[in-house]
Amino acid sequence: MAKRVYLFHEGSKDDRDLLGGKGANLCEMTGLGLPVPFGFVITTSTCREYFQAGNKLPSLLEQEYRVALDLVEKKMGARFGDPDNPLLFSVRSGAPVSMPGMMNTILNLGLNDEIVEGLARRTNNPRFAYDSYRRFIQMFADVVLDVDGHKFEHELQRYKVAHNKSLDVDMSADDWREIIAIYKTLAKMPEDPFEQLKLAVEAVFRSWHTPRAIVYREMNNIDDSLGTAVTVQAMVFGNFGDESGSGVAFTRNPATGERQCFGEYLFNAAGEDVVAGIRTPLPVSALAERMPAVYEQLHTTQSLLEKHYRDMQDIEFTVQDGAFYVLQTRSGKRTGRAAIKIAVDMVREDLITEREALMRVSPEHVEAFLHPMVDPAAKRDIVATGLPASPGGATGRIVFSAEEAEEECAAGHTVILVRRETTPEDIHGMRVAAGVLTELGGMTSHAAVVARGMGVCAITGCSTLGIDYAAGTATTVDGVTLRRGDVITLDGTSGEVMLGDIAKIEASDSDDFQVLLGWADKYRRLRVRANADTPEDAVKARELGAEGIGLCRTEHMFFAAERIDIMRAMILAETIEERQVFLDQLLVFQHDDILKLFKIMDGLPVTIRLLDPPLHEFLPQHSEDIAALSAKIGKSVKQIRDIAERLAEVNPMLGFRGCRLSVVYPEITQMQVKAIMGAAAEAIEAGYRPYPEIMIPLVVNVREIRLITDIIDKCIQEMARAKHVSIPYKIGTMMETPRAALGADRLAPEVEFMSFGTNDLTQMTYGFSRDDAGRFIPKYLKEKLIDMDPFVSLDQRAVGRLMQIAINESRSKKKGIKYGICGEHGGDPRSIKFCHDLGLDYVSCSPYRVPIARIAAAQANVGGEQPD
Length: 868
Ligand code: ADP
Ligand code: MG
Ligand code: MG
Description:
- This protein is of the alpha/beta class.
- The model has no long low-confidence stretch (mean pLDDT about 90).
- One magnesium ion binds next to helix 30.
C-alpha cells in the first residue's frame, strides 16, 4: 500500500502532484531550514481514494496520521488535546496547481470548552485564547458542518453594535467569551479533537468540489480529477498581541514587476484577516520601523526563496510574540506587465535563461499587457481613489453583486462590479466584469489576486466609498452618490475611479516587451504573418512584427463607400460587356490598394485571396438604398430586386462563393489577377520587392486550380508583351473543405502553398454553422459535450487530423509546398502549438495578435525541448 502521510521533512518541492503545491513547498522550506511550524501532508491520491470510495476515508488513514501526529507533538513540545499544554493545528487544502482561496482551510483545530481554558492559562492571554476559539468555531461550522458563515458575521456585528465596539481589536476576552456562547447555539461542535481532525480532513477533501473551485478549474483548464492534498500543521498565532501579526509579501511588485519587497502586514491579526481583506493592512515597511529584526528576517527569507525557486515568490508569514514563521510560499501571480519585466530582469540577473524567460510569460499575460489604458491626456472626473490592484482601464455600468454582473453581461452590457470586498463566491461575477472595485482589502486581498490573475482591471481598498447594497448606491466622502447602472471608469494603474466613459489608449510598448519578443523570434521556428486587408492593417502588422500577409481578403477592398456601388453595378450587370465596364473601374482601385500593400510589405510575401463571399452579400437590403442605387446605375428598382432575388441563396455558406465565382465569372478573376500582377510589376519598377501569392478559396478539386492558373498565365503573357519584368509569384490554395484535405495529393502538383482556412474547415467538418453555433455551443460546453469551442481553439482530433492527412499526402507527391493557417485559430496559443507540432511553416492572424503568436510560437518550440 502506498504511503499516504508525509512529514514535512519527507517531501520536497518536486512532490507537487502528490503533496499539492502548498504541502510540497512547506516540505521544501523545512528542508531549507526556514522557520516553518512543523506538520504533515496527506496525499492527493488519498483524496482520490476518498472520492472513489463514495466519500469515505480509507480505513487505515487515521492510524497512519496518528503516527505522524505523535512526531509533530514531540517536535513542538505540546500535545494535541491536552488542556495543560495544548497543540493546535491548521488543516489546509492544497492542489497540485495553485487555486488561491478556492478551497477550504480550518485554523485553530483542537480547541473545546476545556482546552480553551487551558490555553488561556498557559499563555496567560485569555483574550487571545477566546478569540482563537471563536474563529475555530466559525470556520469549522462553516466548512465542516455547513452552517452559513454569514450567520456568525451577523451575530458578531449585532454584538459589536450593541456593545459599542467597532473593530475586532476592541473586543475583550469577556466579549469573545460571550460570542462563543452565542456561536455554540448555531453549531453543534464535536468536543473530541481527534473527531474534529477527522471531520476536517474530510471536509477539505470535499472542498475540491465547491462551486467556486469548479468554476476556477474550468477557467484555468485544471484537470478535475487531480484532487487536493491536506496539510495538517502546528498553529502559530498572529493574534497573540501587539508583538504579533500576519502578512503577505511578494519578492517583486506583482503589478509592475519592480524589484522591491512588496507586501502588507496587520498587527495583532491572524493570517486569514489579511487575505480576507476585512481590515485594510499596512505596507510591510511598517514592520521595518516597529520590528526591525523581524523585517530583516523577512527580507533574508525572501531573497533565499527567490534564489532557490528562481521565480518571484508570494510568501505568507506570521509573527508570534516577535518570532517569525513562514507559512507558505508559491510563485506569485502577476500582471502581464510584471510578468514581462520580471522575466527579462531575471535573465539580466543571471537567474534564468532566455528560454525560461519565454516560458514565464503566458499568452494571457501578453494579452493583458496589451489591454487598453485610460488615456493620460483625457479629462478625468475623479470621485474616489483606491489601491491600483490590477492595471488597465475599464468602463462599465455599476453592479453590486456577482449575480447582477452576470445578468447585465448576458444582456450585452459591460459592467464594473462594486463590492465591499470580494470572496471566492464572487468569482463568476468577476469573470464577466470589465473591472472590479472594492471598498475594503489591500493589494493582496482576494479581489486583487484574482483580478490580476484574470487580467481584469481592479481597484481595491477604496475606503472613501460607502457602499449600501440595499439601496444600490455607493457614496463618496464628498457626497457624490453612484447608483446601480451609472457608468464609471476605473484606472487600475493609478487607482482612480472616474465618472463616465473616459477615453482609452493602447498600452505603449515597453523596452522589456521588445526584448522578450526578440527572444521569441530567436527561438521560434513557425513564421508569423498577419491577416490584413487595408494599408492601415498592414502598417500595424509590420510594426508588430508580422513577416508578411497571410491573408488579404480582396472583397474588403470593395466595401468602401465610393466603390460599393461600382461593385453592385458589376454584380447586377446582365451582359459581359456591361460587366466589363465596371470591372475596369474596379481594377483601378484594386491595383492601387494592392500596390500599397506591396510597398508596405516590401520584401515580404503578400497572400491575396481571390473574391470569396457570395455576391448577394454586396447588394443593398433596404428600399432607400435600393432606390439610391437605382438612380445611380440606371436600373429600375424592380430590375434590381429581381436580380437580387435570383442571386439569393438558401444556404449561402455552402453556396455560390469562393472559386465557384471564378468558374462562373472568369472575368472577375481576370480583373483581380491583372490588378495583382500589374501592381507587382509597378512595385518592381519603383524599386520594391513584391512577393505576391495568389490564393484560391474554397477549392474542392484540382481542375478549379487549373482554371485559375490558366487565367494567371494568360495575364502574365500579356504583361510580358508590354513590359519586361519578371514577377516572383506563387499560386496556392486554401484548404478549407474536407474534400480538398482528403484530396490534397491531387492538388499538390499544381500549387506552391496550402493555407488551412480553419474557420470553414471547422464549419464543414462539424456541420456547425459559424453564424448560428452561438445558440448551442454554450450549452455544449456546459454539458461537456465538447471541451472547447472549436471555432476558438482548433479541434485537434478531427479537423487537425484532416490537416495532418492533407500535409502528409501532399508532401508525398511534392516537396517544398509551404503550409500555413489563416483562420481565427492562427492567433490562438493552443492552436499555434498544434500548428507547430504539425510542422506548418507559418500562422497568420489579426495584426493585434501577432505579438502573442510570436511568443506562443516560441513557447511551442522551447516547450518541446529538453529543459536546459
Ligand atoms: P489558502 O490556500 O486559501 O491561502 P491557507 O491554507 O494558506 O489557505 O490558509 C489561509 C491562512 O491561514 C494563511 O494565509 C495563513 O495565514 C493561515 N494559516 C494557515 N496555517 C497556519 C498555521 N499553521 N499557523 C498560523 N496561521 C496559519
Ligand atoms: Mg495561503
Ligand atoms: Mg473560408
